[in-house]
Amino acid sequence: MMAVRVLLDHEVQEETIALVSLLMAELGVHSVAYVFPKVKIITTAVDQSLDDLLHVIPGIGDFGDRYFGTDTSVSWNDEDGERPFALTQAPARGNTNAA
Questions:
Q1: Which of 7, 17, 86, 93 has the fewest C-beta atoms lying within 10 Å of its C-beta?
Q2: Of the listed ranges 16-25, 56-65, 76-85, the one predicted with least confidence
Q3: 8 A C-beta contact, residue 23 and residue 44
């Protein structure tokens, strides 16, 4: 909702704003629609409930954390011990020629 507020603060008309999401909790849809009734909400799915940590149930399994390798609480069962979807270190900038 903060992103919508920033747009409104920069004089973007509420009826021209579209909130696009892969997945939303029903509570989130109702909250946004209540506070910003003219904002168009586009989502692929709406899940009905949240857990105690306000994560969507059943959700998509913290895909972002797995993709970017930022979730340290998940233990992976790969035989080689590597975490799937983890980013590799980016190459250093500057001279990339090997001496």
A1: 93
A2: 76-85
A3: yes
Residue type, 11: E
- pLDDT of 57 reads 75
* First-residue to last-residue Cα distance in the chain: 51
> What are 24's strand-pairing partners?
46
Q: In this structure, which long-range contacts are made by residues 48-52, counting pairs with CB atoms below 8 Å and at least 24 apart in sequence? A: 49/25, 50/25
Residues 6+ apart with CB under 8 A from 66: 74, 83, 84, 85
Model pTM above 0.70? no
DSSP sequence for the chain? -HHHHHHHHTT--GGG-EEEES-EEHHHHHHHHHH-TTSEEEES-EESEE-TT--EES---SHHHHHHT---SPPP--TT-PPTTPPPPPPPSS-----
